[in-house]
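Thread: Newbie trying to understand structure tokens

Hi all, I'm a second-year student working on a class project, and my supervisor (Dr. K.) asked me to get a predicted structure for one chain before our next meeting. I've only ever worked with sequences, so writing a 3D structure as a token string is new to me. If someone could post the tokens and maybe explain what I'm looking at, I'd be very grateful. Here's the chain:
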Amino acid sequence: MTTRVLVTGGSGFIAGHCILQLLASGYQVRATVRSLTREASVRSVLIDAGMVNEHNLSFVAADLMRDGGWAEAMQGVDFVLHVASPVQPGHVDDEDDLIVPAREGALRVLRAAWDAGVERVVLTSAFHAVSWGHPHTDRVFTEADWTVLDGPGVDAYGKSKTLAEQAAWEFMKGTTGPMELVTMLPVAVMGPVMGNDVSGSNHLIQSILNGGMPAFPHLFFPIVDVRDVARAHILAMTTPDAAGQRFLLSNGPAVEMKDIGATIRARLGAAARNVPTRTVPNIIVRIASVFSPQFRSIAPDLGYAKKTSNEKARRVLGWTSRDPEEAIVAAAESMVKKGLVNK
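---
Reply by user tm_fold:
Sure, no problem. This is what the structure looks like when written as tokens:
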């Protein structure tokens, strides 16, 4: 196979799993990193994670905030998986630290892909671009929904993902030609850690294992396994009917935080000694939110389990997904194995 795929943010969590699966399927893969000094360490992480066909992997330096390097990155590329974007849910001092790189980076990648004649770009958006800022009702969220930017509980990360994806679709409206766009909307992504970096929703698992919270707030998380997210990206890249579509990637009901802890305790034994067993009343969190930006960002979602549908991904992409418990356990076990948990 001579098809070449560019994966942006090659050192990232989702990107790494995309690279592994692309290589295993025989693709030529080019990955971007901000500096080529990262290449050796990224290769080492991928080798440790079971990479095959390493000779089909190359790297190029490109930064989301700079034009330089992107023309070279796109040369001879058939498809782009644009995964790179800053990830920092919760409170940040300056929202533009997330919003500007996400939005401008997406546009920079799309312009370079367009100029290079790329066939299709698959952009990693997020559930944060779908379900934040809405009233707490029994609605089932789908790809047709968009986050309400001025609604309750919308943090800088949610704004960055929403604005970046909207900018990408606006860019496509202003062009005429063969390049296609698909966007992926994964819920909380968990699963086996690569290297020693813990990113995204895996931070929640690490915090639980380390006893970082004395008790669980009444929060619910819809969860999807990173390996399934990577497979969905490749399906979105190759499925003709996916062009011009958004895909919500979820699996099953949202899982309450205390149940995530219970799963970890049941499966990890002594390694789960620091996992709490108590819950904290909602009123305590709401009082704390008056004084703490961190608590303020979670207070609106206390006791609310968002419902999601992955019907479109299953129907159009033929996508299937693991049980959320598999993602939770895989994340926890990999952290213990790599020594990323306090003893």
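A couple of things are worth pointing out once you decode it. DSSP finds twelve helices and 13 strands in the chain. The mean pLDDT is 94. Feel free to ask follow-ups in this thread.
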